[in-house]
Amino acid sequence: MIGIDVGGANTKLVDGRETTIHYCPLWEGASLTGLLQKYHDRRAAVVMSGELADCFSGKMEGIEFIVHAVKEAIPDALFYGTDACFHQTAVPQLAAANWLAAADYLRLEYPDAILVDMGSTTTDIIPLSRFDALKGLSDLQRLQQGYLVYTGLLRTNLAAALPQVVIGGIETATSSEYFATSADAHLVLGHISPDEYTCEAPDRGEKTREAALRRLARVVCAEPGEIGSSGTLEIAYQFWRAQERQIICGIGRVMDECDADTIITAGIGSSLLAKEMDAINLRDRIGEASDALPAFAVKEVALRDESA
Amino acid sequence: MIGIDVGGANTKLVDGRETTIHYCPLWEGASLTGLLQKYHDRRAAVVMSGELADCFSGKMEGIEFIVHAVKEAIPDALFYGTDACFHQTAVPQLAAANWLAAADYLRLEYPDAILVDMGSTTTDIIPLSRFDALKGLSDLQRLQQGYLVYTGLLRTNLAAALPQVVIGGIETATSSEYFATSADAHLVLGHISPDEYTCEAPDRGEKTREAALRRLARVVCAEPGEIGSSGTLEIAYQFWRAQERQIICGIGRVMDECDADTIITAGIGSSLLAKEMDAINLRDRIGEASDALPAFAVKEVALRDESA
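YS: structure for the whole thing
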């Protein structure tokens, strides 16, 4: 059994604990069937969130597209929904259920924990003690309840978290253009390597430190020469502080309402977050499968259901 | 004499008072020379801000590209710089001098006014009484002094101005993805017509009210059916209020420091802004040339210099 998580930008595959993350932007017409073809003789459990990609006029069109594309490669694939059940056809419940699969997998072992899964694009904050109340929640409802924080390690427009920045002591408004992304900030801060910069750069340029510094300077309409490398690093650092504050405030809000005793971090931002708080880093327990937790989890839940 | 303003996204042309705005995204390789070819036998005065487009590794590369592309079509073109002088070759002073040309044109007639030029992407707030102090300012310095507010009528990511929105009384965090743009908000609010939606839509889709409502709902990860048309309109309305607040605070800050007695609005957002405050709408004085003020202004300044 393999686990698959089809996002709008990335498709994640877990086979055993071997994890691969493919940049597969659905809105650019990347071929999901082609990517999955080599697994045609395997069984697969699937979750998705890619139905929200704006190449689809609505979520149901996205669900139908993804189910069809997966089944072209793997006809017997099973799809997990927000009702915590598996389905074989395109039904509305399949919209954005990847986070629920992660909760479903972890809730037995960690019934009183909060899961914080920081991915490339978003961060899920999930109170595992409330599994029954989580069922059926849409992304809209999760945004309202603080369970979905739309900020991630790689694909977040710097301007969205940083309306202004202090450079050399001077408060400076930022450009709202998509000039730099969170991957640029985390690259120059040493949180990720160029290899881990798996999304496209905003200018479609190189993923080197030098190119990232150029993109970061552009956020204040400047070149690195105009603000110095200290100014450029200030932009990266203040972005990360703003992003961290957003996540930590979110965790605090969810903890207040559910008396959790433990925080578990997962996702590609897991180690970075675990360092900042007293948390269980899921990467220490399940290895790189933690980077693609919903894909790993949906496979484990399918196996658990089978053996029950 | 024609006036040309080469932006990153739009190139604006003024011939007499006849104004055309061409969507000509330099980062997508649109041909500036091709666009200008039919003016090959005319004299031209040029300003730019497109050198910041992220297809160029630095501003000087952008300036050289734009000067070369313009001169391929119009060999004798003159380029206005932040030193308030005309140049015939690519020099650093040509970076982002379009706003200064507008100030240079208006300062004699309105020496104590503040010019508020709201374009597709940015809004310039310029104290005309300080013309000498304005010379040489970079976009970085203008962001720091509040003279450049990076929000516009068409091309501003909704998420940049709207980290959260109240929908049906419930505070809702927004997605930081580029799902909807200010043109979507202004279209559904009736501030612009589909014809005036001259930039590309975020999903490259249609510029109808229905498609814009779909893009706006996506800002909270929803479909229009999930939040109703009132919810979708709330997103548009709250964005516009946030955008307006940003501009009005900026004007207040600049007025405080320079004792201006008059506000002049210009740019494609001129009429919308003039309605909200006691201002001279430049569109009532110079017609549609107000929509492309720097292009009109650089031509007028060149003619004034000639006759001096």
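YS: worth flagging: The mean pLDDT of chain B is 95.
IM: good catch. Also The first helix of chain B runs from residue 32 to 36.
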